[in-house]
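task queued by scheduler; priority normal; single chain, no ligands, no partner chains; default sampling; output format set to structure tokens
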Amino acid sequence: MLRLLFFFVFLCAPALARDLPPVLLLLNGTGSAGKSSIGRVLEKSLAHATFLSEEKLVFLAYLDILRQKGLKPPRPLHNLADLMAYRATLPAAMESSLRREFRSRGQAYIQQDTRRGIELAARQGYEFIVLDNTLWKPEHVAEWREQSSRYRAFHVVVYCPLASLLEHVRARNLSPRLYEHRDLEMPLEMYFSMYPPVGEDASRFVDRLERQQLERDLQACSLYQKSLQGRALDCRQYLSLLGERSEVKIAPFFSYDLMVNTAATSSEACAAEIRAGLLRRLQTTLR
């Protein structure tokens, strides 16, 4: 009974907590880990919540890059589908230039638009602002901590093992919506940047990487990348992270509040786990 009371007060009765800043619920994981699917479930299942999708932020970041380069599409672009159709009309050299620009500066654009989106959602009175983003470099984590300092923050790592990451990308690439298609270059770079090896005595880790299994997973990723005619993957650089060890533990290089695994759990079950973790935090102190 007491648990139900807490659930009502903190998750179902936002009017009772209007003197508190909104909760920023960050879903952080590699591309194609399943963050957006979980975010959409949370937007529906949390009371008075909004979801700032990374896909929308990527779209806005590309619009900024197009303006910087002086490129003017013949028709207004409204979403990622429009953007993909426009990019398909560009010369290969220009398309490659856009991709390089996004890799080097896209995160800065996304951070700017994320900040604007958070401020707008807070002014509109949302109690829960769900974010879908990838913090895979120390500077990204520092920006998040500064950005969330005015709010109550709950940081969730959405983990996806390599074999499942490959399956997620395969599934995305079967979609008739071309803007959902991905290759594996960026997700793999994010994965190995986010989850470096930790000491064998580490008590908090998200997975174990065994050398032979890692070799098989990377080989499967490399073959699939070739089938997409994308840039070849340098699997040796990732295997080198193990050094001479046959197995390593991996964990995020930053602190976080909760981890969910999309290989073992559906989006709905992950969202339920996140809601339960958030409830536990709200019962104590959420800063």
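post-processing summary
- The longest strand covers residues 152-159.
- The chain is about 50% helix and 15% strand.
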